[in-house]
Amino acid sequence: MKKNSIKNTRINNEVQRVLANIIRGEIKDPRISPLTSVVAVNVAPDLKTAKVWISTLGDEKAQADTLAGLKSAEGYIKNCLAKEINLRNTPQLHFVMDQSIAYGVDMTKKIDEVNKNL
User: Fold this and answer.
1) Helix 6-25 crosses helix 74-84 at what angle (to 10 degrees)?
2) Burial class (CB in 10 A: 0-12, 13-18, 19+), 50
3) Whether this model's pTM surpasses 0.85
4) How would residue 116 be classed by pLDDT, with cut points 50, 70 and 90?
5) Rounded to whole angstroms, how far apart are CA atoms 33 and 106?
6) What is the CATH number of the domain that holds 36?
7) Is position 90 within any domain?
8) What per-residue confidence (pLDDT) applies to 33?
């Protein structure tokens, strides 16, 4: 896997910050959980696409609803992103649910169970 350049890293961080603000403050879709955070963003070097990892606190239905709400609001989010950040191309957004936080909590519970049984 190719290492990101400094420019690409700065673009990723800025897009992540702006997307977090848009999701938190500007989208009024009731399907999107208020406990949604943008974990990471990976913008392609040609600025055509961006993979956005999101995390939502709640059960699987809340996560699925949030993902559906974000996918339906993708055009609006892209428009807000274009107004906020001046890039040559505004990337097409692809939202992916990040399961690493839930995985970490599950592993911690399993480790605690093993330590308790010893």
Assistant:
1) 120
2) buried
3) no
4) confident
5) 21
6) 3.30.300.20
7) yes
8) 87
